[in-house]
C-alpha cells in the first residue's frame, strides 16, 4: 500500500450529473446537459477548501451531492473511506450527522416562530442523537461566541451576522466533521462578514473541522481557505493555493473571475473599470 | 455662468412618529458629480434616497431642504413630483424585478418613459429605446425589447432599469445598491455602462452601496453614514487612503484583499464588534461609541459634528504617516 499524505474525510470521485432539458419539439430526442462533469473534489480534517466559479457553474449542485441530498448518476461519494450510497444504515447515519450545511440567508433558513434554543435542538431530534443536549447547547454557544440569553429569543431579534452565527451553531450541534457553507457571508455587511469569516477559521483550527466554502468574493475565499477549486460549466478547471492562483491564474475561467474583481486599491488608482 | 448643483441637501431628517432613520444629513452634488453613500445595512442610506425621490413610506415624515432644478423637493406636491421622476431625477433600485412591470415588454417600458416626458411620437420613442438598449450592450436588442422581464437575466434587467433611468437625460441618477444582486462578472459590466453613460451625459450620480470597491471605482467623493448621520465626508482618495473616523477605518479594515492575506493563513481580518443600533435604541453622544475602541466619556455624552477634517469624531484616527 502506498502512503498518501492526504487523507480526505469526504471526497467526490468522478461525479457526473445531468439534468434533462425541455424538448424543443415533440419529435426532438430528449436531451440533457451535464451540470457536473467528472468531478473530483475532497476535503481533509482541519482543512478549509474553497470552490469558486461564475453563476450557474455548478457550485450549489456540487454541494447537494456532497451532503448526500442528491445521488450522483456516475461516480462516487466517499465518507471516511466508505461509499456513502452503498454504505450500511449505521454508516449512513454517521455520515448524515458528520456532514452539515450552512446556507446563504440565515433569515430564511431559521423558522421565525421558533425560539433559538428550540431551533438549535432541532437537528438533534431529527438525527436522533442521544446524550445531554443541553450541555451540548452550551458548548456550541461558547464555540460561536453567543450568549446563553440568545436561546430564549426569536430570529427577528438578531442582526444578519448574529443569525449566521446561530445557523453555524445549529450546524455544529451534531458535532460534525465537515461543514459545507454555500455563500455563507454574501448577505452580510463587510464588517459583519469579517466576524463570521474569523469564526469559521477558528472552528476549522480548534475543532479540526473540514470546511467546504463557496463565495463569489475571491479575497474572501483566499482569506478563509488554503486550497481552492475553480469550476466552470460543470468541470473543475484549476486547483491551487488561493492567493497564488488568483494572482497568477492560468485557466481562462479563473482569469475571467479575477478580472471581474473590484478592489478599493484599483478603484483609487482609477484602474477598476 | 455656472449651473446650480445637481442637488443640494440641507439638514434632511426622515422618520416616523418620534423615530428618525435619517438625522440631519447635508451634502451638495455638483452637475456631473459622483458621490458615494456607504454604510452598513440599516444605517439610513435607502431612507435618504427615497426621501430625495419623494418616495418615503406612507406615514413617514421628511424635513429639511432638498434643492434641485430650482425648487425645494421637500415641498413639491405629489403630482409635480411624479412628473419629475424619470425626467430631471431618476432612480435605479437593487431589485429590478420590483420596479419593472412584469406584464409589459421591456422595450415598451423604456419607450413609455421617453414618451411620457418628451414630446416625441410613440414610434420615435421606441426607436430611442432601442438605441439605448444598444448603448447598454444588450445582445439581440430587437428580440430582447420584445421580452417580458421574467424572460431575461438579472444583469439584463438591471441594464433595462439603467436605460430607463437615463432615457430623459436627467440631471441626477440615484442608484441604490444597483449591482448588489448581480454576479461579479455581470456587476463590472453594468458599472462600466452606468459609468460611461453618466459621463457622456454629464449626469450626476449618487451611488448608494455597502460595497467599498464599487465606490472607489465610480465616485469622486464619499459620505460614510452611520445611524442616520454622515460621520465622514470627503474626496474618495482621502477618505479611503487615510480615514479619520473610526467607523470608516473599521469598514476598510474588514475588507480582505489579496495583498493583506498571508500565505500561511496567519493574517487576521479586522472586524467591527456589535451591530448597527435600532432606531428606538440609539446610543447617546456619538452613536458609534458602543462599537468604538477609542470611545471616551465625552463620546458617550456629546454628539460630534462634522469637523474641518471631514469627520464627526472627538478623537480622530491619526493621519497615516507617509
Ligand atoms: N434541478 C435542476 N434541473 C435542471 N437544471 C438545474 C437544476 N439545478 C440546477 N440546474 C442548472 O445547473 C446549473 C448549475 O446550477 P448551480 O445552482 O449548481 O450553479 P451555481 O454555481 O451554484 O450558481 P450561483 O453562483 O448562481 O449560485 C445551472 O445551469 C442551473 O440552471
Ligand atoms: N418601513 C420601515 N419601517 C420601520 N423602520 C424602517 C423601515 N424601513 C427602514 N427602517 C429602519 O430605518 C433605518 C434605516 O434603514 P435603511 O434606510 O433601509 O438603511 P440602509 O439602506 O442603509 O440599509 C433602519 O433602522 C431600519 O430598520
Ligand atoms: S467620537 Fe468617539 S466613539 Fe465616536 S468614533 Fe470618534 S472616538 Fe469613536
Ligand atoms: Mg449557487
Ligand atoms: Mg438599503
Automatic annotation (TrEMBL), chain B:
Alphabetic keyword roster: ATP-binding, Cell membrane, Membrane, Nucleotide-binding, Transport
PROSITE patterns cross-referenced by the UniProt entry: ABC_TRANSPORTER_1, ABC_TRANSPORTER_2
InterPro entries on file: AAA+_ATPase (IPR003593), ABC_Ni/Peptide_Import (IPR050388), ABC_transporter-like_ATP-bd (IPR003439), ABC_transporter-like_CS (IPR017871), Oligopep_ABC_C (IPR013563), P-loop_NTPase (IPR027417)
GO MF terms held by the record: ATP binding; ATP hydrolysis activity
Main location: membrane
Any single biological process term in GO: transmembrane transport
Location of the ABC transporter domain: 7-252
Gene3D superfamilies: P-loop containing nucleotide triphosphate hydrolases (3.40.50.300)
Stated family: Belongs to the ABC transporter superfamily.
GO CC terms of this entry: plasma membrane
UniProt subcellular location: Cell inner membrane
Record carries keyword Oxidoreductase: no
Keyword Membrane part of the UniProt annotation: yes
Membrane topology: Peripheral membrane protein
Cited SUPFAM superfamilies: P-loop containing nucleoside triphosphate hydrolases
This protein's name: ABC transporter
Amino acid at each position: 500500500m502506498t502512503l498518501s499524505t492526504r487523507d480526505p474525510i469526504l471526497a467526490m470521485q468522478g461525479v457526473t450529473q445531468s439534468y434533462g432539458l425541455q424538448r424543443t419539439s415533440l419529435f426532438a430526442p430528449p436531451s440533457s446537459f451535464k451540470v457536473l462533469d467528472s468531478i473530483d473534489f475532497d476535503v481533509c480534517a482541519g482543512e478549509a477548501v474553497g470552490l469558486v466559479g461564475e453563476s450557474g457553474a455548478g457550485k450549489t449542485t456540487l454541494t447537494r451531492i456532497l451532503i448526500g441530498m442528491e445521488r450522483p448518476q456516475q461516480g462516487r461519494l466517499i465518507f471516511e473511506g466508505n461509499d456513502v450510497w452503498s454504505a450500511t444504515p449505521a454508516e449512513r447515519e454517521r455520515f448524515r450527522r458528520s456532514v452539515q450545511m450552512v446556507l446563504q440567508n440565515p433569515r430564511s433558513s431559521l423558522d421565525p416562530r421558533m425560539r433559538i434554543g428550540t431551533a438549535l435542538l432541532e437537528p438533534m431530534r431529527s438525527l436522533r442523537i442521544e446524550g445531554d443536549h443541553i450541555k451540548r447547547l452550551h458548548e456550541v454557544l461558547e464555540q460561536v461566541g453567543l450568549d446563553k440569553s440568545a436561546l430564549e429569543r426569536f430570529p427577528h431579534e438578531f442582526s444578519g451576522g448574529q443569525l449566521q452565527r446561530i445557523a453555524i451553531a445549529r450546524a455544529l450541534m451534531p458535532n460534525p466533521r465537515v461543514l459545507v457553507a454555500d455563500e455563507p457571508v454574501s448577505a452580510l455587511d463587510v464588517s459583519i462578514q469579517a466576524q463570521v469569516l474569523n469564526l469559521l477559521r477558528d472552528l476549522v483550527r480548534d475543532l479540526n473541522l473540514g470546511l467546504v466554502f463557496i463565495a463569489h468574493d475571491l479575497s474572501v475565499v483566499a482569506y478563509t481557505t488554503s486550497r481552492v477549486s475553480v469550476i466552470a460549466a460543470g468541470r473543475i478547471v484549476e486547483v491551487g493555493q488561493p492567493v497564488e492562483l488568483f494572482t497568477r491564474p492560468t485557466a481562462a475561467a479563473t482569469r475571467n473571475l479575477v478580472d471581474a474583481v473590484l478592489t478599493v486599491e484599483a478603484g483609487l488608482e482609477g484602474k477598476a473599470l | 455662468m455656472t449651473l446650480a448643483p445637481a442637488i443640494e441637501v440641507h439638514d434632511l431628517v426622515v422618520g416616523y412618529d418620534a423615530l428618525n432613520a435619517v438625522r440631519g444629513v447635508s451634502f451638495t452634488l455638483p452637475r456631473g458629480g459622483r458621490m458615494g453613500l456607504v454604510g452598513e445595512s440599516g444605517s439610513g442610506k435607502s431612507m435618504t434616497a427615497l426621501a430625495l425621490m419623494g418616495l418615503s413610506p406612507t406615514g413617514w415624515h421628511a424635513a429639511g431642504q432638498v434643492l434641485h432644478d430650482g425648487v425645494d423637493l421637500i415641498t413639491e406636491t405629489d403630482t409635480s413630483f411624479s412628473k419629475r421622476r424619470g425626467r430631471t431625477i431618476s432612480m435605479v433600485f437593487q431589485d429590478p424585478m420590483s420596479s419593472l412591470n412584469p406584464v409589459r415588454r421591456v422595450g415598451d417600458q423604456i419607450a413609455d418613459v421617453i414618451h411620457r416626458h418628451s414630446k416625441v411620437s410613440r414610434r420615435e420613442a421606441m426607436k430611442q429605446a432601442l438605441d439605448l438598449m444598444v448603448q447598454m450592450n444588450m445582445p439581440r436588442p430587437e428580440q430582447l425589447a420584445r421580452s417580458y422581464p421574467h424572460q431575461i437575466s438579472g444583469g439584463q434587467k438591471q441594464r433595462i432599469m439603467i436605460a430607463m433611468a437615463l432615457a430623459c437625460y436627467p440631471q441626477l441618477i440615484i442608484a441604490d445598491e444597483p449591482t448588489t444582486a448581480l454576479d461579479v462578472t455581470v456587476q463590472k459590466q453594468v458599472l462600466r455602462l452606468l459609468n460611461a453613460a453618466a459621463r457622456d451625459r454629464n449626469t450626476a450620480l449618487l451611488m448608494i452601496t455597502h460595497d467599498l470597491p464599487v465606490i472607489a471605482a465610480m465616485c469622486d467623493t464619499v459620505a460614510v453614514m452611520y445611524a442616520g448621520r454622515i460621520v465622514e465626508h470627503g474626496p474618495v482618495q482621502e477618505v479611503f487612503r487615510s480615514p479619520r473616523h473610526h467607523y470608516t477605518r473599521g469598514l476598510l479594515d474588514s475588507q480582505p484583499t489579496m495583498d493583506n492575506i498571508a500565505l500561511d493563513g496567519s493574517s487576521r481580518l479586522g472586524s467591527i464588534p456589535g451591530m448597527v443600533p435600532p432606531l428606538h435604541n440609539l446610543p447617546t453622544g456619538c452613536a458609534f461609541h458602543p462599537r468604538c475602541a477609542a470611545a471616551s466619556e465625552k463620546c458617550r455624552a456629546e454628539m460630534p459634528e462634522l469637523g474641518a477634517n471631514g469627520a464627526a469624531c472627538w478623537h480622530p484616527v491619526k493621519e497615516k504617516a507617509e
